[in-house]
Amino acid sequence: MPQSLRSILGYRIAKPRSQSSPPKKSRPKTTTKPRPPSQKTLFFPDKFPDLGDLPILTPQEALSLRDVVQTMRYIRSRMFTAVPSRGFTSARTAELLNYRAGMPRLITMGHIHAVLGGTSPSRVEREVAELVGKGLLRRVRVERRGLLGEALMEMEDLRVLLGRVEGEGGLGGRTREAFWRFLRRRPMVLVVGAGDIREGKGRVGGEHDEVGGGGGGGGGGDKDGDGDGDGFLTQSQVDELVRAGFLTSCATAAPANGNLHLRPEDRTTLTSIAHVSRFASGTVSAVGGRNALHLAGGGGATARKHHGANNAAASSFRIAVPGHGRYLKLADAAVRWVQDALSATTWGQGPEAWLRERFEASQTRHGVDNKNLYGPRWKDFWGVEWEWVLGEAVGLGIVDLFDTGSVGRGVRIRGAMRN
């Protein structure tokens, strides 16, 4: 007799149930790690002892420098590091070499005073004035740049630069000769005035006549560089020198409205924007009051005086050197780097070895000093030497050098507390 469905289902084999796994242990809650203290408190919290100021050069190096010209050549020879044969691409290597080739052979006056720290500043100035008067050096000045804008250049280097620009087609032979005669006859002059410019076209441009010569001697066909010229420049020659970068207009050297770092309202008028904003729109007070024109420096004889001064400045030109702005930009950026690095310390001071290591991004592994080619020295400053950067910073009066007595020579921001 067939079994019923109920009986069949009643004999099902019951599978053993798997034992329940123990409950998983809960993971411990992760606690946030405390943030490290700020970087400023990590760098030298204790103040270094001050055992006296130190010069840039060692006594052995100072004995090898006797005059200003020798000091200038010493500084120039230690400005850039040789570009390594490995580590850079060919494009980067070419970029570095082209940048250095366009750098003028200038030396700032502050750097010279810093290197000749053991010599009296008045003695250095007298020697510079004597060399400039003899025509061996040329003083070049950029307005509104302080001590950084005043530099010296050897006349021989300036002659080579004139010949190179002429060879590249940026300057005509006649113009080069006339400008060189002007520089030789007026060694102390910094500005080409309206009385030094004569009307006339002259033979200028890219032509090279029989007297010129690509990078010839001081005065082309003249043996002594003075020639038979009258020492004046024509207007067309002045225009050509301006395009080549050897002259700059004096009209932009001294703005009539004061410092460029002033606020907009202080740069153009003596009326405060915060003051006039309190009055209703459309009233006289909203535009500065009845004396707004007078407060802005306009009207009457003052306007005629400024107009005459602007005309005189527009007809004058300051003697310049092509690439001087590039030099100033590099020096200013390097000095600011030193100032920012010292500002990250507690007392505004640190060992020179620490600063140099940060600048060169050097790492010592297995006793070998490995200089990183992608640190600030090569990435931002085109491979300049640390000695040159330190000399510029000391010459500008940004930092001082002192003897720590324990970690060698120290560097501190001038004006930092010493007690």
Account of the 3D structure:
By secondary structure, the chain is α+β, with helices and mostly antiparallel strands. Among the domains are: 180 residues, no CATH class; 111 residues, no CATH class. It is built from 18 helices and 13 strands. Strand 12 and strand 13 form a beta hairpin. The longest helix is centred in the C-terminal third of the chain and has 20 residues. It is extended and about 140 Å long.
The major pleated sheet works out as: 3 strands, antiparallel
Q: Order of strands side by side in the largest beta sheet?
A: 1-3-2
How many runs of DSSP E, i.e. beta strands?
A: 13
Proportion in β-strands? 5-15%
Mind telling me the C-alpha Rg? 35 Å
What kind of assembly state do the chains in view correspond to?
single chain
| Overall SS class | alpha+beta
What global shape is seen? extended
Poorly predicted regions: 202-228, 254-271
Query: Would you tell me the overall average pLDDT?
Result: 78
Helix fraction by DSSP (H/I, runs of at least 4): 25-40%
Distance between the termini: 116 Å
Q: Please tally the helical runs, counting DSSP H or I stretches of 4 or more residues.
A: 18
Key phrases:
alpha+beta, 18 helices, 419 residues, three-stranded antiparallel sheet, 11% strand, extended, 39% helix
Task: Summarize the entry for a quick read.
By secondary structure, the chain is an alpha+beta fold.
